[in-house]
Structures are given as C-alpha cells and as structure tokens.
Design brief:
Glycerate kinase, domain 2, Rossmann fold, single chain, Glyc_kinase_flavodox-like_fold, 6-stranded mixed beta sheet, alpha/beta, kinase, 5-stranded parallel beta sheet, 34% helix, globular
C-alpha cells in the first residue's frame, strides 16, 4: 500500500515537514509494510519557501533586508540554479510573524524588503521568480516593493513618499523611469491563497487589515489610499487591475505583481504541487492524508487540503484531512474531493493545551486511520 502524506503547516505548532513526519510515524506504527511518501506543502503563505526548497532541492540563501518596519532582518530565499529560478516568500521579509502585537501597524508597514529580495534574484541572473504571497504585515499595495526596485512615488512637492499604506493618499506622481530594467526579462508567477479583489468589502483592507492591526477608521483610510494608488497606477500603465481575483492578496501585493511585474497569479497550492511533482505521487498513492490548522468554508478559496483534494479527485483517490479544528462550513469540502475530515483533539482542550500536543495527536490519528483502513474487506 502506498500512502501519500502532504500536509501544510499547523500554525504556531508544526512546520509542514514536521507534520508530515509525525503523520508518518503513526502510519508506520499501524502499517509497517506501507510505502510512505512525505510531501510537505503550502498554499503560498508562510512556509511556502520551505516546501519549495524541500520539493526541488533549491539552494537556501540569506540576504540582509529591511523588515516591514524598516529594521534590518536576515531573510531567506531559494535559488534553483539549473532553472535560473528564484523562490521569494513575502513573509520572509515583510511577514506579520516578525512583529509583536503592538508593532502591527498597516498604516506604516512596507513591502520594501520584498523588492530587495527581487533585486538580489536579478543580480544572480534570475530569469523566473516564484513570488509567494501571504502572511504579510503590510497593506501598501506593493508600493514598498516598487520603491526598492527603483520606482518613484512622489507627493505634490515632488518628494518621495514615506513608506506604508497611509502615505499612498498623498501620491501625486508615479514614475517608472528608474524601475530596474532587468524586470522586463523576468518571468514572474505570484502564488496567492485568496481570490479577493484589491478594494471594497471583500478587498485587501476590509478582510485582512484588522488582523494586521488596523482599526475600523484605519481600514477606511487604507482602502481609500489603495483606491487612489490604483487610480494613479491605471493612468500610468493604461490598464486597471484592481478587480482581478487575487489582487487583494498580501495587502495588495497581488495587484502590484500583476500590474507592475506582469505576473501571472496562480493559486499557491497549485504552483507548489506542480514544483513537488504531486501528479506523479498522486498516481501512485492508494491513500492521501493532508491537513492544516483549521478546515472551514473559507478553505475552498485555495487552502492546501482543498487543492490536494481537487487534484486527487481527478484521479479517484481517497483523501483524508486532519485539522486542528473544523470550523463553520467545513462540510462543503466533501464536494471538493475530501473523503473524510477529522479534528485532532482527543477531548476538551484549549488551544494553548492543544498546540504542544499537535505532533502526538497527528501520530495517534494516523495510526487509528491506518488500522481502520487495514480492516477494509
């Protein structure tokens, strides 16, 4: 029997690799004869770089960049030399996880460090970049990235704008004359894990701004600022991408990637499964087990378990999802190829109590599942 284990990370508990390893221990306790393949995944957010490096054997590199608040930070990126391809995870430079709760301020946070990573990739001779969006602390529409790459964002006095989303209200002139010319030869694919547009009630700010520290008043201000940035950008570019599904990813980085880098926006899980050669592993599998911290109705927007289930469904393979919790609407996942889904908790427990036990619980659930699987007629 071939068992494919392809979880995402369990937020604040286990990386995808650690989760897959825990699952494997449980499978092998119940079915020592099983052929087990570990394929840790991600959906474009935090942890995607690790998943890509594990899948492809890319070189992990480090670069001194500025974090979301302009402080120095060591950020990792991946380099696949034989394909001249760079893997760049936004969260490495401008991630929410690098800020304490009282430092979160989308009025001022910036994607400048992401631009620094892209510049390093260009210096290396990159011909392609996979830009992994998600986990951002920012709401600047990618303006900081553009500033790092040479674009000029100027106010009414022809002075450079300060970084951060709120400054975009004062944008008077956008000049791309000094934008790094090497970008014209760079093919960019941007991995997104949401399909939100840039603006409005489903936009970057309204949906994701509060978790980045924005008050209701700041949400309104930032949405106006992004709208103004989109207006100015449309005049300069001759095209308007604000309504594009995924434009609202990572505080509007999806918008900037498409508008200024000519990126194709793809569901992150599809991109990473392609790099991991998931089609081959699914063809060989008799049983697929995936999972992440939470499974609910919003998972259908492009989260890892659903991406796995959809791909497995096309091959008529059974898929079991193990989640830290099952939230509202999770049953809709059955229509997407999920065969069964289980929460990890083995009794009443708080999140604080559950997190340290995640590996143990994953092992136990996988052992039980494989024992049950072995009893099929």
């Amino acid at each position: 029997m071939n068992v494919l284990l392809c979880p995402d990370s369990f937020k604040d508990a286990l990386s995808a690799q650690a989760a897959a390893s825990a699952m494997a221990r449980g499978v092998q306790r119940a079915a020592p004869e099983a052929q087990v393949h570990l394929c840790p995944l991600a959906d474009g957010g935090e942890g995607s770089l690790d998943a890509l490096i594990a899948a492809t054997g890319a070189e992990r590199r480090q670069l001194n960049v500025q974090d979301a608040l302009g402080r120095p930070r060591q950020a990792a990126w991946g380099w696949l030399s034989d394909q001249r391809t760079a893997f760049i995870e936004l969260a490495e430079a401008s991630g929410l996880q690098h800020l304490s709760a009282d430092e979160r301020s989308p009025l001022h946070t910036s994607t400048f460090g992401v631009g620094e990573l892209l510049r390093a990739a260009l210096d290396q001779g990159a011909e392609k970049a996979l830009l992994l969006l998600g986990g951002s602390a920012t709401n600047d529409g990618g303006a900081g990235m553009l500033q790092a790459l040479g674009a000029q964002l100027l106010d009414q006095h022809d002075q450079p704008l300060a970084r951060g989303g709120s400054a975009l209200c004062r944008l008077t002139r956008l000049s791309l004359d000094s934008l790094d010319p090497r970008l014209a030869g760079l093919r960019v694919e941007a991995a997104v894990d949401v399909d939100n547009p840039l603006l409005g009630e489903r936009g970057a700010t309204a949906v994701f701004g509060p978790q980045k520290g924005a008050s209701p008043e700041e949400v309104e201000l930032l949405d106006r600022a992004l709208g103004h940035f989109a207006d100015v950008s449309a005049r300069v570019l001759g095209a308007d991408h604000r309504t594009l599904p995924g434009a609202g990813a990572a505080g509007g980085m999806g918008f900037a990637a498409r508008a200024f880098l000519n990126a194709s926006l793809k569901p992150g899980i599809e991109m990473i499964m392609q790099q991991a050669n998931m089609a081959t592993w699914l063809d060989k599998a008799d049983l697929v087990i995936t999972g992440e911290g939470r499974l609910d109705g919003q998972s259908l927007a492009g989260k890892t378990p659903i991406g796995v289930a959809r791909a497995a469904q096309r091959r008529h393979k059974p898929v079991i999802v193990l989640a830290g919790s099952l939230g509202d609407g999770w049953q809709a996942c059955f229509d997407e190829g999920v065969t069964a889904a289980f929460a990890l908790a083995d009794g009443p427990m708080t999140l604080a109590a559950a997190l340290p036990r995640t590996a143990e619980l994953l092992e136990a659930r996988c052992e039980s599942l494989l024992r049950l699987w072995g009893q099929r007629p």
